[in-house]
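Protein record
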Amino acid sequence: MNITITEEGKQFIATFDGRLDTVAAQQIEETITPLLEHADKTIILDCGKMPFISSSGLRIFLKIRKEVAAKGGQMFLRNINPDVMQVFKMTKLDGVFEIQ
């Protein structure tokens, strides 16, 4: 799993590339720090290259969302493939996140 974080104006875009499974979730814990630090801005999680997400991966997304809500920012998920979207639907998280 690789994450690339870019800043475009007042937006921070995190592009997830690879499987966000339990091992990857543990490894990227520090990588998401810039997103947490700038949670008062708009955070976009681009999932176009992420074929799988585990419950640990969902926990990472929820952690970012919690910080964004606390700091008054906005968060969007985009480019979610059908398999990953199914996980969001099964866990009812499709109603928690704003998905573009």
Remarks:
- Residues 13 and 44 are 5 Å apart (CA to CA).
